[in-house]
Design brief:
Low-confidence stretches: 1-28, 243-247
Distance between the termini: 87 Å
Largest sheet: 4 strands, mixed
Order of helices and strands: EEHHEEEEEEHEEEEEEEEEEE
Number of helices: 3
Oligomer: single chain
Number of strands: 19
Shape: elongated
Number of domains: 1
Length: 336
């Protein structure tokens, strides 16, 4: 920009009155102009470092704050994500087990409705963590550490889970799947025990659910065959040679003998054998290499004989001469 010079001087008019004259002069200062142009070019080519330093500091502070916020959000959301994922996996596992239990219940209803000689084969997948399946006359309702399902007069198909990895049922309500069948149980619809004569006349005395095979660390595909049979009593109910499984109890046997409930649990230990038995309201247990447990209820006597790791269960008298039985054979087809 060129500077402006201003000069003021006075003149006397012919009449003697003063007159003011203002003169404008434009002064072109070439030296100042060239200096200003050079300074502008210098700033354009070499911008001031202080401006970039401030911008860099602001960017670094923003990154630190942003990373800190990410860490805070992650520490809050990741546990929630893990919890949600575990819940979703458990729901999927329980859903798959319920599908298998429903297939078993449908097959059990079918052979029961078809009468002696009827036969049904089903295939299904069991998820990881299944340690036991029970579907016997004595399986109606369940009692757990955090709740109970009351008996209602019908046999249940019950699938038990080990979610905590100790190879035993977790004993919680959400670790067992229950699907009801049409078969009468040892209790009536009000939860009262049925009489021995009613069970002898109407119930399925034995369902061989001890024949299910388990592999809790794998997802397994099973082929199961159920067959309704009429068998004639011999005084020997079962001969058993111990085998190892993942349930923690090597042998489980349940039956209705002359209308009386019989339960036997046994485990083959390294140094001896352990047996617990309950017949009606009587129960006993023992350990050793050779021993016999004898229980008598309402005129019927059951003997559990143990010798060198083998178990033999007998009873007397043999009445009636026959009993209803649903046999079960299980085969694992695939593991995943």
């Amino acid at each position: 920009m060129m500077p402006i010079g201003i000069k003021c001087f006075g003149l006397l008019s012919p009449k003697g009155s003063p007159t003011v004259v203002i003169s404008f002069t434009l002064k072109h200062n070439r030296t100042q102009e060239s200096h200003g142009l050079a300074s502008a070019m210098h700033n354009l080519i070499n911008p001031r470092r202080s401006s970039y330093a401030v911008k860099g500091q602001l960017s670094l502070e923003f990154m630190i704050v942003f990373v800190g916020l990410l860490l805070i959000v992650g520490s809050i959301t990741y546990p929630l994500y893990e919890t949600s994922r575990n819940k979703a996996e458990r729901l999927n596992t329980l859903a798959e087990a319920r599908k298998a239990a429903t297939l078993l219940a449908t097959a059990l209803n079918s052979v029961y409705a078809g009468g002696p000689g009827s036969r049904q084969t089903v295939e299904f997948w069991l998820p990881r963590g299944v340690v036991n399946i029970e579907m016997n006359t004595l399986n109606d309702g369940v009692v757990t550490s955090d709740g109970a399902v009351q008996p209602n007069g019908r046999i249940d198909v019950q699938v038990f889970f080990d979610f905590n990895g100790d190879e035993n049922w977790d004993n919680t309500r959400d670790s067992v799947v229950i699907v009801e069948t049409l078969l009468p149980s040892a209790w009536d619809e009000n939860g009262n025990e049925r009489s021995s004569s009613w069970l002898t006349e109407n119930a399925i005395q034995i369902i061989r659910d001890e024949n299910f095979i388990y592999d809790s660390i794998h997802r397994t595909k099973h082929r199961v065959t159920l067959e309704y049979q009429i068998r004639y009593y011999e005084n020997v109910l079962v001969d058993w040679t111990p085998i190892e499984d993942r349930w923690g109890v090597d042998f489980k046997f349940r039956a209705i003998v002359n209308g009386i409930q019989l339960r036997v649990l046994a485990e083959n230990l390294i140094w001896n054998d352990w047996v617990w038995a309950k017949f009606g309201n009587k129960w006993d247990m023992d350990t050793g290499n050779t021993f016999t447990i004898t229980l008598t209820e309402n005129g019927t006597t059951v003997a559990i004989e143990v010798e060198n790791g083998q178990i033999r269960i007998t009873y007397a008298p043999v009445l009636p001469p026959w009993y209803r039985c649903i046999s079960i054979t299980d085969e694992i087809l695939e593991r995943a």
